[in-house]
Amino acid sequence: MMVDSQHEHPQELIGAFVVGQLDEREAAGLRAHLEGCPVCRADVAELAPVAAVLPLADPALLDSEPAFPPDRLERRILARVRAERRSRQRGRWLRWSAAGALAAGLAAILWFAVLVPERAPQVPREAIAFSLVQAGVDAQATLVAHTWGTEMNLTATGLQHGRRYTVVLVATDGRRVQAGSFIGTAGQPLKCNVNGALLRKDTAEIVVTGPDQRPVLRAELA
Predict the structure, then answer these.
(1) I need a labelling partner for 212 at 20 to 30 A (CA). Which of 27, 78, 123, 188 fits?
(2) pLDDT at residue number 6
(3) pLDDT in tens, 26-85
C-alpha cells in the first residue's frame, strides 16, 4: 500500500518507540505525531504485542557460550535499510518496506532478548485491585507502563465460555480507549495481555465489559 507522499511517516522510529528505546525528546515528538496520524498509530498497535513478549525471555534457554545473531540477519537488516533509503530518495516510499524493516529490527531485538537476557531490563509491573467483580468471576491483573501506552496482564476464571469481552481504558479527561478483547473460558484459567494507546499516568480507570456491554470488572487507578 502506498502511503501519502505529502506526509512524512517516521516509521524508522516506531520500532524503538514501542520497546522504550527513544530518549524523552524523541518519544515526546513521536507521541505528538501519533495524535494526528492514524497510519503510524496503526503501526504502533500492530507492533505492540511483539514488544510485549520481550520481557518473557527465558534465561534457562541460555548455554554457557555468548550468543550472537547469525550474520545473515545483519545482512538482511542492512540490505533493507539501504533499499529504503534509495526508495525514499526516489520519492516512492512503500509502507510494506517500512513494516518489513521494523519487523526485521524487532526480530533482532527479540533474538538478543531471548539469548542475551542480561541486556533486557526487567519491566516493573503494577498490581491493581478490581472494585467491581461480577458474581462468580475471580480475576487478578497487573499493569505495565510503556512509552507508547498501557499493557494489562489479566488472569481470570468464571467468564462465560465462548463469549467476547472488551477492555477499555478510561482517561482522566473521560476519553475511552479500547485496549483489545478476549474470549471467556468459564472455569478454565484465562490468561491474556491487552494493550491500549493511553499512557498509564493518564489512565484513571479500567473497565471490562461483557457481551451485553455491562461492566464485569472495574478498577479505579490512583
Answers:
(1) 188
(2) 46
(3) 888 888 888 888 888 888 888 888 777 776 666 565 555 555 666 677 777 778 878 777
pLDDT in tens, 163-175: 999 999 999 999 9
What share of the chain in percent tops pLDDT 70? 71
Q: Cβ neighbours of residue 32 under 8 Å, at least 6 residues apart? A: none
* Residue partners of 156: CB distance under 8 A and separation at least 6: 137, 138, 139, 140, 189, 190, 217
> % helix / strand / coil in the chain, to the nearest 5?
40, 25, 35
Residue 19: all three cell numbers together = 520497546
Sequence ranges of the domains in the chain: 11-119, 126-220
Question: Which CATH number fits the domain 126-220, given the four candidates 2.160.10.10, 2.60.40.770, 2.40.30.110, 3.10.20.600?
Answer: 2.60.40.770
Look at strands 164-171 and 132-133 and give their pairing. Answer: unpaired
C-alpha cell at 221: 487507578
Query: In degrees rounded to 5, what are phi and psi of residue 14?
Result: -70, -40
Write out the H or E segment, with its range, that includes residue 148.
none
Q: What one-character DSSP code corresponds to residue 195?
A: E
Residue type, 85: R
